[in-house]
Amino acid sequence: MQHVVATVSGGNLVSLRWVSSETTDTTMPSEMMTTTANPMAASAAVAETTGPNPISPEMKELQWGAGSFIVLFILMRLVLFPRLKKGMDARYAGIRSDHEDADAAKSGARADVVAYESALNDVRAQAATRIDAARQTLDTERQSQLAQVNARIAARRAEADDRASAVKAAGRGQISDAVAAIATRAGEIASGRTPDAAVVKQAVVSAMESAGAR
Amino acid sequence: MFAFEFPPINEILRWQDIFPGFNKIALIAVAATVISVSLFLIAARQDYREAPTGTRNLAEISVEFIEENIIMQTMGRDGLGWTPFLLSLFLFIYLCNVPGIIPILQMPATARMAIPIFLAIVVWFVYNVTGIKHQGFFGYFKSVLFPPGVPKALYVLVTPIEFISTIVVRPFSLAVRLFANMLAGHLLLVIFALLSEALFEARDKVLIPLGVLPFGMLIFLTGFEVLVGFLQAFIFTILTAVYIAGAAHPEH
Fold first, then answer.
1. What is the ipTM of this complex?
2. Which of A3, A71, A110, B165 gets the most CB atoms within 10 Å of its CB?
């Protein structure tokens, strides 16, 4: 089958050539080929291959482009943007309100902390006063108790000293009596005569006192 | 040995109709609208009381981006009423730019003149009507053509310049900036893709490894086009905001 291939540049027909379908140049776009072999078809091929001027707008593109943009703008103006913006505004208002609530809660919490710290300081001061008073009371009580205990101890100590002195004196008397008896007996054995008991006693006591003084 | 033939520009930009009167550019434009509408519809269905995630997060980020980085910077709080228009403009342009790097589509709809010129005409209409509405017909044209503070003798020069720049050139500069940047990016991607293919398929085996160079450049430019697509949408939108702000409040 024969084809006519038209080459056009800048709106002008540059060349026309016949090719068979077996030798079709596959690098040529399909729209640049026509499948007829008569001059009328060749002119149709020229019209077909005269592409759009790269500068001038094509009517179908203008119509579809304009229609698409106008539809988009109308929908955006009347439906799409207001719905989205309404949601955005509502959320931003909610966020602002939450921020304000949070600020108010923070201020309230700060006031509560200040009040708590003030109350805590009062309680601490009261506690310190009470502790001081209790400490003083305790101190006085302790001093008093100590004085009583010391007095009791002193009395008992004096009593014990007295008892010890008495026991000591009794012991010393017994010792002096025993020593005097021994000394009298020793004098009797030595001299054959019984010495005066009072004199012996006096001598023994005197000797014991001088020994205790040393 | 090595044959590299760059196709005519019309062949690169020519798209067969998917059905009569509806080609790939139209498909991208419709898809941009469908994606934008779907994004906002899905976002609006999610619970607004919870922290936004996923689709809602994306929609809210885009709204806040327009409000904080475009409107508040150019028009102030009074301009927030323009958010739906500027948001539509930004999303539509961005979603028309992005297909330039999406496999199979691989064509930014804004690399054809139809959409940029239509949007520029809309913007031209909007800022002129805004100026007339705020200042009155004569007040607006007086502020445009006879800027205050200029010596009267200079009006002979300034008035024609202002008329041409504000009334005539602005829509063309808007349209051509967007169109030319996207077309240039598209052509660069085509050039490096074709060069890579030609080198990888060269008959001379020595040339095959060299295909890595244009292929690397192709990857780099693809990433770059992501930025360009966003930047061009941003520039178009912020200039629109500046023009509207200037028309509404010439003293600023």
1. 0.91
2. A3
